[in-house]
């Protein structure tokens, strides 16, 4: 029986560096990198103008992504998912995705201060002007309101 790949996913506030870490880990592990931002912008161009829009389209994406990732993991290939695991419910989705096919998982938790996140968001607005409308302090505060730090009681392999 072929060994399954490992699923790597991330928890951290907006601007914590999840995407940067995802790219680094995917390169280091020669893993498949899937970015929610890339999928959403390709499938729903100019349709995400609010947090409510993001939640709607993200939910529509998940069934397709889940099956796709499970097929990749089943081949023995590692998958790095640059999708948020910032709430208990989101992390349980990732955990179930891996558990259903008996694949290993790792959660990378980036515990970064609000001040550092806001600084990095400001830098990202400059480097990626197309994100300026969404990458704001107001959006950071709105999204951070829902953030839940991971707990050992969730059954996760936390790094």
UniProtKB/TrEMBL annotation:
GO MF term (any one): ATP binding
Q: Which Pfam families match?
A: AAA_33 (PF13671)
Name the UniProt record assigns to this protein: ATP-binding protein
Tell me which InterPro entries the record gives.
Answer: P-loop_NTPase (IPR027417)
Q: Which UniProt keywords apply?
A: ATP-binding, Nucleotide-binding
Top-rank taxon of the source lineage equals: Bacteria
- Originating species: Shewanella salipaludis
Q: Which Gene3D superfamilies match?
A: P-loop containing nucleotide triphosphate hydrolases
């Amino acid at each position: 029986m072929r060994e399954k790949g490992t699923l790597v996913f991330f928890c951290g506030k907006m601007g914590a560096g999840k995407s940067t870490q995802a790219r680094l880990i995917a390169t280091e592990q020669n893993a498949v990198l899937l970015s929610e931002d890339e999928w959403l912008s390709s499938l729903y161009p100019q349709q995400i103008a609010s947090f409510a829009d993001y939640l709607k389209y993200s939910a529509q994406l998940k069934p397709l992504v889940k099956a796709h990732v499970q097929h990749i993991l089943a081949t023995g290939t590692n998958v790095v998912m640059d999708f948020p695991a910032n709430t208990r419910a989101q992390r349980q989705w990732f955990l179930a995705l891996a558990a259903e096919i008996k694949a290993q998982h790792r959660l990378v938790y980036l515990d970064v201060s609000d001040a550092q996140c806001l600084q990095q968001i400001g830098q990202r607005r400059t480097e990626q002007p197309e994100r300026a409308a969404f990458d704001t302090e107001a959006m950071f505060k709105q999204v951070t309101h829902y953030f839940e730090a991971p707990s050992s009681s969730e059954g996760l392999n936390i790094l």
